């Protein structure tokens, strides 16, 4: 994260209130928050790895803004999804009695949002630095009423939300995986990185299934999954899948693992999901995953499973199946 906030406060003309709570929406763990008072700032972060890192650093953190909270100022760190960014700005303007500060990378639409906000309210200051922009304005709830997040949005009968993975349609890779799975995978399963619950919903169609661990790091996506899935066999976990530990060894893990947390691809994320799955599985357990064809997961599978193969796919995606995890020495 850049130092735009520190520069704006230090020499850019931005003055934060000396009293009253501050709401800080979606800061990453790498954000430079050094100018904020720890005793008055509440960080709103629904992504579990960042939530845990910020809490460990001593910040007060919540996954969502407490109902009816009023704040003296609000800061919004822009997410990638424009609709989610607009909703966060609207939420900040609604809860705030003072300034709303918006910071983001230009690749995440910071300049575009700055231009849109200027059409609605006077922008009191702006700083362009380090491939991004920070700007601030006096809160005006009515100016952003049309940006308020809808109570729910739907995809093929499922509830989704702005900013979650595959919010506007079923992910084609997940659909391909569903089409490739056998009807029965075992009694105890997990869906790692479950999102809003598309794969889990399919797995729960098996009457022989006893428990399904629905694991998702994005609290917003997991909220959707909890609305989409009412089957009591599903157990929901707001957790980083790479560190999740089930109560018992699993018969199978199914997943469409992420391969980026920003705009830069990181195959290491998917590889970490594979390692985590191997640790969760029973000795004869199996892993089913879908991945973009270019991602180099086969090497990792060979390290932690006795057998693996590509069982289906197309020009964009591959379905990989691995069995019998190998217990590596620590």
TrEMBL record:
Name any one Pfam family assigned in the record: MTS
Please give the name of this protein: MFS transporter
Q: Which GO terms describe its biological process?
A: methylation; rRNA processing
Checking PROSITE patterns in the record gives: N6_MTASE (PS00092)
All copies of domain Methyltransferase small, residue ranges:
158-320
Q: What GO molecular functions are on record for this protein?
A: N-methyltransferase activity; nucleic acid binding; S-adenosylmethionine-dependent methyltransferase activity
Organism the protein comes from: Pseudodonghicola xiamenensis
Q: Which UniProt keywords apply?
A: Cytoplasm, Methyltransferase, rRNA processing, S-adenosyl-L-methionine, Transferase
**What domain of life does the UniProt record list for this protein's source?**
Bacteria
